């Protein structure tokens, strides 16, 4: 008995007995930090809420008298205060200390207001702040830790009222009580820090317009200073962005542009690509009823309804998809192939049609698509038909337009009913805001016949100018004064040898200049198409004998998209026909022009495009001389047949390897072609370099409805192999022309040797 009394006395001295079980479960964290009157707590919480309205930040501590209460402590105090006031109790409040919530921002609450007391019944609970307060107290007392959220039941499942939302809304109700002596019927459920909202993002995002305006230079289609393709834009405003999407070896901006433009919101940094995607999602969320969560399956079948959607003050969308990275050519707008984007302004209808389809395309491509095309008249397939919009809108043009959209909202303090506010507004579609070059000519390249000829160029210069040219080119006049416009004649002397090329330079001093590329055809060959064909088909033996792992894009080495055991023709391969030697790039031009001649088209035409080649019958293998070449060269990725065929039923991307068959059942595709696609490809491909600085297009896509019975890509290098198989057929069958070949006759097509395995 004495021993038992001793044990009890010891436990009592240690304070272990007579402690409530619930407090004991919380350990030392539930000890009291002080007792405060309701007036003290009401005053302190009202001050805290006033501060929140200024900076929208939930404070780490709140001072009550000489005590600094931590977040768990003052939240517990607020909860007790709300419950006591509701129940009519005026007693002082003992504030206990608990562990902080682990994830207090887990929230999915779906209403803009909540009752303070006497809210509606939700199952066995009541949806009001008093109920939330009592449940926070119970959960904290039981577990020794503030809960992450309070759950309410909805037909679609539980919905979470986060502890961060509770912290702000309880404070809002208490501040109203202090001001009016009673609780309001309802209070707003807004609680997010302005630093974590779409509005805070927008305030940072629009800074890209200043960077764009203040950065001036030369920009190529890949958004770099690389001018190798000869189609760079000079003296333009642009936004420096890093390479991504697997193209981090591309020649992008130098160190002078680092750190690249990006956005920081509430301590989180977003790359330019992420910011662009967040901006697009935010606009779609604000101007449509469905928001950015659904994909559009078909290019011209919208699934979004214009109307007032979310507010600018709501949480910013996230850009966490794997495809959130730039494609290879975010500035790509080739005005020769695709018309320049018009008009100069867009309305909300443009965002409504453009943004949903970009998300579908991006998902399919696995990266941000380079551009979308518009047709105002509906005559172009797979284009967005949305009058008055026409032409090509690249990713960066779209990015600038989204920034101008947000700037309008910020400048006019628009945070809700966004669609109503913007439905009659127009936003600039400007991409470059180009600064006029000090000296310009209206041509980038001139091609002369072997016999020699004169061609005019139109020159403008801000100051006196001079010129330089190869010795076989004459410039008249060779110099001049400042001019708002004048004609200068460029004359090539007769050529008695091979193809020759050079550069004419017009310049002001040595710093301001513009270049004009010139080339002149070789003396026509006396060798025939048949002579060429006999040497050309020997490339097939070289192709069969060479095997290695190649890159699907450039064909040089393993690279980013390796193709193991690929058959190939080395790029430096040449063939000789008579006294003329041709590289592989020359060979494919001759093959395509010769093919067109044998099919009854004017294969020597240098301006025609698809379905525009004049008919020209009478060409034969033995009786027609080899067409002249033009010194063409490969594009950056002549093997590129990447991409996918569909997402959610929508055909997008480049389509992958070229196949003949049913695109809806790709497994049935064959490595065969007929004359229909050989006609089509040759006409699309052969004159392209003459309007693109001598560079072949990488591929022609057949992933949409370009030609029935085919899907995928027809790359430039596949053409080398395929037309060689065609000419092998002509030689094997001793044919003189291709006019009588049956429409269903097939020819092997291959790229990496699938037919050899």
Major sheet attributes: 5 strands, mixed
The order of strands across the largest sheet is 21-28-27-23-25
Distance between the termini: 95 Å
Total number of beta strands: 40
Low-confidence stretches: 1-29, 224-230, 246-251, 645-652
What count of structural domains? 4
Q: Tell me the Rg in angstroms.
A: 36 Å
The count of helical stretches stands at: 17
Q: What is the mean pLDDT?
A: 86
Q: Give the helix/strand class.
A: alpha+beta
What can you see in these coordinates?
This protein is an alpha+beta fold. The chain has four domains: 173 residues, no CATH class; 231 residues, no CATH class; 82 residues, Immunoglobulins (Immunoglobulin-like), CATH 2.60.40.10; 228 residues, no CATH class. Helices cover 29% and strands 21% of the residues. Strand 8 and strand 9 form a beta hairpin. Helix 3 packs across helix 6 and helix 13 packs across helix 15. The termini are far apart. The relative contact order is 0.06.
